[in-house]
Specification:
2 strands, 73 residues, cell membrane, LapA_dom, two-stranded antiparallel ribbon, 52% helix, alpha+beta
């Protein structure tokens, strides 16, 4: 009986490799953008790390996209 011994790296799917690469890029992005920035909107002024401000804006855009998508019949 021949047992198939596959290495750990060969068992990772392309989707998992893409997720790993995106995670590494996200961590590098956070490390590079730790400086505090001040955002002013109407009468509100917020000081926060740049990566957090960008993450919040991404989430707002994603939610707006989800709310405005048309459902197919």
């Amino acid at each position: 009986m021949a047992t198939e011994s596959r290495s750990f790296l060969s068992r990772i799917s392309p989707t998992q490799w893409a997720a790993l690469a995106l995670t590494v890029l996200a961590v590098l992005f956070v490390i590079e953008n730790r400086t505090k920035v001040t955002i002013e909107f109407l009468l509100i002024s917020v000081q926060s790390p740049m990566w957090l401000i960008l993450l919040v804006m991404f989430a707002i855009g994603w939610i707006a996209g989800v709310l405005t998508v048309r459902k197919r019949r």
